[in-house]
């Protein structure tokens, strides 16, 4: 079935306001509205971003009488974990979350020897309709609030601390949704992620990756925000004819426009662009397409690009499959021959439908 492109999320009730929706000024205002002294704002920020606590009952440095009121007004429960599945010998864990309105989203925590990465969702569903992606097949339910996105980060950081005595180092917006279609909320989330505690989680901007289908104007806007996060561009084809079908938004902003915007991003931020390319057997894996990809990326971005090949994760009901390994190796070789660095992404989470593009939140 062919899906329609949806840029505007359906008008649905958003969750109640949460502490994590607020910036520093907003937090001060919120505590003032509750008739509390300003220092409480900092105390709460310390609890949330520093101690990773979202439950006022556990905030023992606050007067007991105040905790209940705070739970009601500033810390409503936004996401409840309804299912967790592990694979890769426990190094990968997918969590299915249910929001207050019954909407479900997923996040995936991946532990590596040198880093810990959480893959988070920015929308419930997705309106971008890429035919090879499980999320894309279900359409867009609604945007997530800033706090709903940040709660996925906080939960991952708390799990790493409590179960492994470790820290969260990397965040990728590669779960459900198109982050740049939920632009304002994602920007405030990025600011909270990057800000040093107690104002945020204090994660280095370069360790945060925003992945997009290529909404060109939004990429330029993001460049001008001065955040310095890593941009991943989901290309999947080096020619408009094929990309029009694999990434339908290409009909609105084509390859040249997406690459121009990526160039602007790289020039403005000094950050190398990560190009995502899901290798699909007999669809986009031909040697000539590898040559064309390398050539176009070298011309557009020079050394400011890295290609991440993702072996396609087949989704239920799809006729597509990953390319055979020899084809994949030849593809890598040809892209590199054009002077563009290229590696193959590992396929964490495959057995638990937690790999790239498999998040569908069916419960
Ligand atoms: N909307 C954003 C984030 C989505 S997921 C984007 O499109 O960039 C992150 C990456 O996984 C994207 O590059 C997406 O194209 C890729 N992906 C989606 N489905 C996939 C699948 N079945 N196999 C491999 N990669 C997939």
UniProtKB/TrEMBL annotation:
Pfam families documented for this protein: Radical_SAM
InterPro entries (UniProt xref): Aldolase_TIM, Elp3/MiaA/NifB-like_rSAM, Methyltransferase_A, RNA_MTrfase_RlmN, rRNA_lsu_MTrfase_RlmN/Cfr, rSAM, rSAM_sf
State the EC number(s). 2.1.1.192
Q: Is GTP-binding a UniProt keyword of this protein?
A: no
Additional record remark: Reaction proceeds by a ping-pong mechanism involving intermediate methylation of a conserved cysteine residue.
Q: Which GO terms describe its cellular component?
A: cytoplasm
Q: Catalytic residues?
A: 106 (proton acceptor), 356 (s-methylcysteine intermediate)
Listed name of the protein: Probable dual-specificity RNA methyltransferase RlmN
Residue ranges of every copy of the Radical SAM core domain listed in the record = 112-350
| Entry cofactors | [4Fe-4S] cluster
Q: What are the binding positions for [4Fe-4S] cluster in this chain?
A: 126, 130, 133
Q: Which UniProt keywords are present, listed alphabetically?
A: 4Fe-4S, Cytoplasm, Disulfide bond, Iron, Iron-sulfur, Metal-binding, Methyltransferase, rRNA processing, S-adenosyl-L-methionine, Transferase, tRNA processing
Q: List the disulfide bonds.
A: 119-356
């Amino acid at each position: 079935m062919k899906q329609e492109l949806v840029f505007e999320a359906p008008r649905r009730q958003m969750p109640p306001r949460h502490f994590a929706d607020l910036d520093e000024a907003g937090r001060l205002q919120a505590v003032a509205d509750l008739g509390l002294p300003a220092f409480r704002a900092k105390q709460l920020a310390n609890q949330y971003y520093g101690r990773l606590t979202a439950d006022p009952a556990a905030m023992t440095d606050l007067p007991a009488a105040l905790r209940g009121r705070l739970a009601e007004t500033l810390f409503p429960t936004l996401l409840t974990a309804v299912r967790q599945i592990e694979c890769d010998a426990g190094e990968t864990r997918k969590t299915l979350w249910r929001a207050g309105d019954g909407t479900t989203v997923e996040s995936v925590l991946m532990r590596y020897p040198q880093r810990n990465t959480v893959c988070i969702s920015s929308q419930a569903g997705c309106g971008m309709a890429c035919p090879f992606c499980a999320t894309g097949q279900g359409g867009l339910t609604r945007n997530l609030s800033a706090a709903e996105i940040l709660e996925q980060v906080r939960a991952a950081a708390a799990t790493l601390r409590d179960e492994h005595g470790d820290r969260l180092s990397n965040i990728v917006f590669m779960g459900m949704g198109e982050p740049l279609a939920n632009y304002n909320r994602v920007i405030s989330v990025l600011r909270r992620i990057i800000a040093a505690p107690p104002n945020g989680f204090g994660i280095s901007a370069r360790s945060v990756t925003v992945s997009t289908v290529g909404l060109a104007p939004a990429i330029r806007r993001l460049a001008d925000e001065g955040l310095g996060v890593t941009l991943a561009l989901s290309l999947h084809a080096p020619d408009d004819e094929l990309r029009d079908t694999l990434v339908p938004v290409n009909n609105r902003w084509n390859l040249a426009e997406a690459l121009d915007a990526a160039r602007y991003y790289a020039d403005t931020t000094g950050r190398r662009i990560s190009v995502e390319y899901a290798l699909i057997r007999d669809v986009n894996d031909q040697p000539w397409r590898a040559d064309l990809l390398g050539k176009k990326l070298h011309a557009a971005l020079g050394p400011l690009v890295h290609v991440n090949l993702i072996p396609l994760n087949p989704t239920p009901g799809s006729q597509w499959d990953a390319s055979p390994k020899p084809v994949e190796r030849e593809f890598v070789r040809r892209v590199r021959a054009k002077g563009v660095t290229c590696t193959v992404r590992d396929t964490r989470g495959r057995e638990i439908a937690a790999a790239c593009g498999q998040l569908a939140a069916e419960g």
